[in-house]
TrEMBL record:
<dbReference type="Pfam" id="PF01075">
    <property type="entry name" value="Glyco_transf_9"/>
</dbReference>
<dbReference type="GO" id="GO:0009244">
    <property type="term" value="P:lipopolysaccharide core region biosynthetic process"/>
</dbReference>
<protein>
    <submittedName>
        <fullName>Uncharacterized protein</fullName>
    </submittedName>
</protein>
<dbReference type="GO" id="GO:0005829">
    <property type="term" value="C:cytosol"/>
</dbReference>
<dbReference type="InterPro" id="IPR051199">
    <property type="entry name" value="LPS_LOS_Heptosyltrfase"/>
</dbReference>
<dbReference type="GO" id="GO:0008713">
    <property type="term" value="F:ADP-heptose-lipopolysaccharide heptosyltransferase activity"/>
</dbReference>
<keyword id="KW-0328">Glycosyltransferase</keyword>
<dbReference type="InterPro" id="IPR002201">
    <property type="entry name" value="Glyco_trans_9"/>
</dbReference>
<keyword id="KW-0808">Transferase</keyword>
Amino acid sequence: MDNKNSINRWAAVKDKIDFKVILYYGGGLGDIAHRLFDSHYLRRLRSIKKAFPNLHIVQLVDTTRSMDTAKAMFELNPYIDTLYVCKQDFMNRDIFVFASNLLSKRKREMNHFQPELDADLVFLQTVNRVYELLAFPRSRSFTMDAFFQQFKLDINDFKQDDPQVYISKEEESYGKKVKSDLVEGSKSKVIGVHFFTGDGKRLIDPQYARVMIQELIDLGYKIIILGTEKESDYKNYENSWSKDMARFMNGFKDNPDVSYQCNDDSIRHKIAIIKNCDYFICNDSGLQHLAWITKTPTISMLREQTVMERDRFGRKTGYFWAIALNKPYASYIIMNKKSQFDTELILKRIKELDSTMKGEANG
């Protein structure tokens, strides 16, 4: 036995370690999908449960969006024992304000805090601990951070898996059927697209989106338009570009080369469809992150001011993790005036993705 491994010191009593361990993540769909990638704990749940089989993993998710969507992202994960979903304004905004005020106003004066602490980190740990006290006041429970600290566990001793959203066999079959019904035995490549958004910062020109889709159809590609029923209804938008985008996408409903998947099926059905696309083209949205997680070759259409954002350390914002890490399945186009109506640039990115994905497969 390797006694230097932090897991092995507990091997003799691993079955007796049976308390609750709390994880918290939250935000919109994109934020939650991003956490599936950057959370050291979520990507190691399988090996944590293998090392401590009677540990009870409790996942708390708060969301700014649909609670059903947030729940669907985690409910089939076999390593999560209890899942709670709530709206983000339940208690967390007050806690974030507290953390921000504490660090911004008192840090310089008191020098009591470690320099690496920031409001986000304090917020996450505080929500975990407040929730732990509220939900399990008389139970043996830890936050995951506290569990690793108190048991002197090294995160690197646990195997890290690829990020994923677990989906059912029925959902897998659904995604395959949507593709097969569209191509009908042909060898046409399928491109999934998602351009809906009510956020003016993330919009691309709807006229360009319509021209691009039609030109791709003319080149022999099959198109799957993804969205929700609400997103596809122009009456739900105040922004004129968002209204136009909904109208233009609706214009492809009856096109035989297009599968119009703007409905209220679960997010896991959407993931199953994306997994079966040969390529995915989207704006900056939650589906962008889900496409990256499925390793579907993805072209993100990003506004210039968005992709150039930097964090406080001068790095590309972690929100664009796949692009920042040069993942072979992640490509992007900065939507400036020069590239706005250039479908040739899309085709160039597709060829580049074919090359990088082939290199990944051979590597």
